[in-house]
Amino acid sequence: MRSAAHVAARELRLGFRNPWAYSFMALFCLFSLSLLLMPADRLQEGYSAAAGSLLNLMLYLLPLMTLLIGSFSLASEKEEGSWDLLATYPMGTFAFLAGKMAGLAAVLITVVAFGFGLTGVLGALAGKAPDAGVLGMFFAFAAGLILLFLAAAAVIGTLAESRWQALTVSVAVWFFLIIAWPTLLIAGLGLLPHPWIKPALAALTAVNPAELVRLFVVVKLGGGSVFGPEYYAWMNWIRGAGGTAGFLAVCLVWIAAALMFSHVMWERRRTHG
After folding, report:
1. pLDDT score recorded for residue 256
2. List of E strands, 22-68
3. Among positive and negative, which fits the CA dihedral 122, 143, 225, 236?
4. What string of H, E and C letters represents the secondary structure of the chain?
5. Number of structural domains found in the chain
6. Are 271 and 164 in contact, with CB atoms under 8 Å apart?
7. CA–CA separation, 240 vs 236, rounded Å?
8. pLDDT score recorded for residue 76
9. Average pLDDT in the 205-233 region?
């Protein structure tokens, strides 16, 4: 645990010394302040067309930034030789990975929290403060995207041998999961027999972290009807007593699986060179 804490603290120092953190903070603050352009009543009513548009904008921005930052951080450890030095220390591979991911998550979530906090303060001063529940769900959406896509970034950074490879794969994964996913999903489900469509849809939704988080937050905001009857079972599950706990459990399984795979690959590199 102490080794992981040291790695996380190192990542925090590097993160907040790096200009990308402040560039991302400025970009996200500009984005989050767009909430104040919404009519005051729209900030109080949960899910709306404007809220859906803002969620979609976050869906484009946060996964790409998280994939790039997370995969670059791990790939650079190999490219610059830092990992070869760290591997000589009495520090476990899992502690290294957990510390890296925890430090990056803290930096990214701090940026998001600052952006939403600034929006809340300025909104209150202007008499247009967003509803705390709506703002909280926006923050939960952002944090969920960051944590799940950091897990995906860990896998990409583990497999990439250089930052150039990490960049290429990250953009490809982002394009597949965010841009191309709806079209590919409709095309793929159309090829299946009708009884298989709903089980396949449930499985594929759980596989895509962006869809998983978006579905949960939209249903919690009261906009589950936009997904259609195919997601009826998902909506009942999320609205149920154990919906939030179940969602968190699925997210933890997703993150644990990604980190365990990364751990195995880094251990292989550590022992076999």
Report:
1. 92
2. none
3. negative
4. CHHHHHHHHHHHHHHHHCHHHHHHHHHHHHHHHHHHHCCHHHHCCCCCHHHHHHHHHHHHHHHHHHHHHHHHHHHHHHHCCHHHHHCCCCCCHHHHHHHHHHHHHHHHHHHHHHHHHHHHHHHHHCCCCCCHHHHHHHHHHHHHHHHHHHHHHHHHHHHCCCHHHHHHHHHHHHHHHHHCHHHHHHHHHHCCCHHHHHHHHHHHHHHCHHHHHHHHHHHHCCCHHHHCHHHHHHHHHHHCCCHHHHHHHHHHHHHHHHHHHHHHHHHHHHHHC
5. 1
6. no
7. 6
8. 85
9. 78
| Residue count (the chain) | 273
CB atoms inside a 10 Å sphere around CB 88: 8
CA distance 252 to 250: 5
Tell me the pLDDT tens digit for each residue of 106-158.
Answer: 999 998 888 888 877 877 777 766 677 777 888 888 999 999 999 999 999 98
- The DSSP 8-state label assigned to residue 40 in this structure reads G
The tokens 């995906």 sit on which residue?
Answer: 152
Q: Residue 157: which of 251, 17, 259 has the closest Cα? A: 259
Compute the radius of gyration of the chain from its Cα atoms: 20
Quote the domain boundaries for residue 151.
Answer: 2-272
Give dist(CA 166, CA 174) in Å, integer.
Answer: 12
Structure tokens at 120: 């809340």
* Placement of tokens 């926006």 in the chain: 138
Tracing tokens 């089980």 back to the chain, one arrives at 199
